[in-house]
Amino acid sequence: MTEGTTPAAEGVDTLTRLEQEGEIAADYLEGLLDIADLDGDIDMDVEADRAAVSIISDSTSRDLQKLVGRDGEVLEALQELTRLAVHRETGDRSRLMLDIAGYRARKRAELTELGTKAAEEAKGTGEPVKLKPMTPFERKVVHDAVAAAGLRSESEGEEPQRRVVVLPV
């Protein structure tokens, strides 16, 4: 807590800062969409103490899929560029999350299911369950799902081969 502020004021300051991050990111991404001549609407939110920005489209075209790329690789790169744009404006490191065309939301649902199934397998067999290598975002979602299922998990290995291991009780 900053000297002279109350816990409630600290929360408002954080929310305002995250909303500012979202606005900076939205402006940056709108410029990118204009340059690429792509249609998309920007949606901003604050989720789990981080700014969340989504690019969505009403059209049936798959233009936004170009911004997702294979296995979300382009999305990850755009997220980092957007975080850098926010950092340039604010001077603060950003943990902003970017989603494009619902890719990350769908991925989160798949990974939650994977984590739940791995937890069930570890409970059933009494053996650790090692999953395939994942990105930090993917590992976080799996760790959360395993914890919700009442088990522990840990990450092992070095990037880019870092993986989640679900531990039995």
TrEMBL record:
It holds the Pfam family R3H. Residues 105-169 form the R3H domain. Coiled coil: none annotated. Signal peptide: none annotated. PANTHER family: PROTEIN JAG, RNA-BINDING PROTEIN KHPB. This is Protein jag. The lineage of its organism: Bacteria, Bacillati, Actinomycetota, Actinomycetes, Kitasatosporales.
